[in-house]
UniProtKB/TrEMBL annotation:
The lineage of its organism: Eukaryota, Viridiplantae, Streptophyta, Embryophyta, Tracheophyta. Keywords: Signal. Residues 1-22 form the signal peptide. This is Embryo-specific protein ATS3B-like. The gene is LOC111482747. It holds the Pfam family ATS3. InterPro entries: Embryo-specific_ATS3, PLAT/LH2_dom_sf. It comes from the Eukaryota.
C-alpha cells in the first residue's frame, strides 16, 4: 500500500483546524479557557439578544450562562441569565438580556453554558454595546450540558501586528482570514521542506 506523504496529513490536519476556527460552527471552549470571575463588575452595558429555534421545547428549566469578551482578556461573565417568565428561552422566542461588565474592545468570542438536561436549541445570539460593532453568532443546534460552547474568532496578538506588506490589497474583505490561513500554511510548507 502506498502511503501518502506525511506532509499531506499535516496539511489536512491544519486545513481542518483552520476551517473550524473560522467561527462557522459552535464548538466547546478550549481547555485553556479561564474565566475572570473577579471581573464581574464594570461600567459598560451590553445587550444580548438570544433567539431560540422553533424546534426547541415549549419550556425549559435549564439555567443558561454566557461568557464573552475581547482579545485582550476582558470578559463579561453571567453564570445564570435572569429570566422574567417561564416562556423565556422557549420555542421560537426572542429574549433580550441587559448585562453589565468591564468595557471591552471588539467582542470576538462568545460561549453559552447550559446547566440542566433540556434539549434547548439556541438559534442566534447578537451582542451589542454603544461603543462596539454588533456581533452575531449562529448556533441553530442543541448545546452540550456543563460545557462552555460557542465561538472564538479572536486573534490573540501579544504585541501589535506587523504593518501589512506594501502592495495594495485588492479588497479588504476576507483579507484577515487569508492571513490567518497563511499562518497555517507556512509551517506546513516548512515541514514539507524538512521531510
Ligand atoms: C435586540 O432586540 C431589540 C428589540 O427587538 C432591538 O431593538 C435591538 O436592536 C436588538 N439588538 C441586537 C444586538 O440585535
Ligand atoms: C435554523 O434551522 C431551521 C431548520 O433547519 C431553519 O428553518 C432556520 O432558518 C435556521 N435558522 C438560521 C438562523 O439559520
Amino acid at each position: 500500500m502506498v502511503m501518502p506523504p506525511l506532509s499531506f496529513f499535516i496539511f489536512f490536519f491544519f486545513s481542518i483546524s483552520a476551517a473550524v476556527s473560522s467561527g462557522s460552527l459552535p464548538q466547546p471552549a478550549p481547555k485553556s479557557l479561564t474565566i475572570g470571575y473577579i471581573q464581574k463588575a464594570g461600567d459598560c452595558n451590553y445587550r444580548v439578544n438570544i433567539t431560540t429555534s422553533c424546534s426547541s421545547p415549549f419550556h425549559i428549566t435549564a439555567e443558561i450562562g454566557v461568557l464573552f469578551g475581547d482579545a485582550h482578556g476582558n470578559q463579561i461573565y453571567e453564570p445564570k441569565l435572569e429570566v422574567e417568565s417561564s416562556k423565556a428561552l422557549a420555542k421560537c422566542s426572542k429574549d433580550i438580556f441587559e448585562l453589565t461588565g468591564p468595557c471591552t474592545d471588539q467582542i470576538c468570542f462568545f460561549y453559552l453554558y447550559k446547566k440542566g438536561s433540556d434539549d434547548w436549541i439556541p438559534e442566534t445570539v447578537e451582542i451589542s454595546s454603544p461603543d462596539i460593532d454588533t456581533v452575531k453568532y449562529k448556533y441553530n443546534s442543541s448545546i452540550p450540558e456543563d460545557t462552555w460552547y460557542g465561538f472564538d474568532d479572536c486573534q490573540y496578538f501579544t504585541s501589535p501586528p506587523p504593518p501589512p506588506p506594501s502592495p495594495p490589497a485588492p479588497s479588504t474583505a476576507g483579507h484577515q482570514r487569508r492571513l490567518k490561513w497563511l499562518a497555517y500554511v507556512i509551517p506546513v510548507l516548512l515541514s514539507s521542506a524538512v521531510l
